[in-house]
Amino acid sequence: ARGPEIQPHELMQLIDQIESLHNPQFITIGGSLPRGLTVEIYKKIISVAKKCQARSVLDVDGEALRVGIEAQPDIIKPNIHELSELVGRELKEMDEIVAAARDINARGVEMVLVSMGGRGIVLVTADESYLAVPPEVKVENTIGAGDSAVAGFVFGLAGNKSLGEALAYAAAAGTATTLSQGTALCRREDFQAILPRVKLSTL
Fold it and tell me: Which positions are annotated as active-site residues?
């Protein structure tokens, strides 16, 4: 379900609330587009984040992603299918994925996170690229795994971890969420147990 229809005054309230944040480090933007809004809202929020000197994280797909990256968010997190759609070609091999992500870097997006399910998650910047592969687990549910990966990555960056370490956090948080049933959040103990088992490599 797409939820309630957003009225113009409610949109203004949202923008006002974002602008009133005190020294935010990150502003993450995700989820489906509510009724009453157009994809231009993503560009607006990214521009507000820049005014707040916060790093913006965009986790959307399709037209919303295509339009959103025009505002040059700092970080995006498509899955491999969404990245393939964005660049207009099917991506399978790792070098193809990195090259496609670098195309996005060249358009002003500093970091591209690409989730690939059991194959792990890739981070690509203009100068660096990493792959984090989580251990195999018994998957109970995949709802919210991508959101948790974003949260893990941002948590790592906010804690001054290196890019590679933050990517390992992303892989561990996303995988930990698959152990929880329904829409439950990942448990700290699962995250902490999985983190040292994540295999991190440079590409």
Answer: 147
CA atoms in the 13 A half-sphere facing the CB of 115? 26
Distance between CA atoms of 174 and 137, rounded to whole angstroms?
A: 12
Residues with Cβ within 8 Å of residue 142, at least 6 apart in sequence: 178
Q: CB 173: neighbour CB atoms within 10 A?
A: 28
Tokens of 165: 């370490």
User: pTM of the entire structure?
Assistant: 0.92
Domain map of the chain by residue range? 1-76
Q: Which of 131, 29, 118 is nearest to 77 (CA)?
A: 29
83-105 pLDDT, tens digit each: 999 999 999 999 999 999 999 99
Alpha helices of 39-179 — where are they, by DSSP H? Answer: 40-51, 62-68, 80-87, 94-105, 145-158, 163-177
**Using alpha carbons only, what angle is made at residue 20 by residues 13 and 74, rounded to the nearest 5 degrees?**
95
Q: Under 8 Å CB-to-CB from 89, ≥6 apart: which residues?
A: 100
Distance CA 106, CA 109 (A): 7
- Is the distance from CB of 71 to CB of 42 less than 8 angstroms? yes
pLDDT digits (tens, 9 = 90+) for 35-94: 889 999 999 999 999 999 999 999 999 999 999 999 999 999 999 999 999 999 999 999
User: What are the strands of the beta sheet with 26-30, ordered from one edge?
Assistant: 26-30, 55-59, 75-76, 111-115, 121-124, 129-133, 199-202
